[in-house]
Recover the amino acids of this structure.
């Protein structure tokens, strides 16, 4: 499911108030990091992560790799922070706006 620009904007607004819960360090993205991201996405749908200075990955690389590992959508990357979204099909918590066709 590809996000529209209005949906990304909505998710960026929600993420602004969220705390950073995932940190990628010099160990990079391990299976345990990917598992914790999957768990957090299932519980919250929207998570914010940060890439530490000692990491060999950029925020964009980390975001893209985690998105592919967790089947999530990258929402935003700014500096060392990134935001991921994955809809919980059983119990959705975030209602995304629908694009209107003109």
């Amino acid at each position: 499911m590809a996000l529209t620009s209005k949906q990304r904007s909505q998710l960026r607004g929600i993420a602004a108030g969220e705390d950073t819960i995932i940190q990628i360090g010099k160990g990079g993205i391990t299976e345990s990091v990917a598992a914790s991201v999957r768990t957090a996405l299932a519980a919250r749908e929207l998570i914010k992560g940060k890439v530490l200075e000692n990491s060999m990955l950029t925020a964009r690389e980390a975001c893209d790799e985690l998105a592919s590992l967790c089947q999530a959508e990258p929402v935003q990357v700014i500096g060392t922070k990134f935001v991921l979204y994955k809809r919980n099909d059983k119990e959705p918590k975030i209602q995304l706006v629908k694009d209107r066709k003109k």
Remarks:
- The first strand starts at residue 20 and ends at 24.
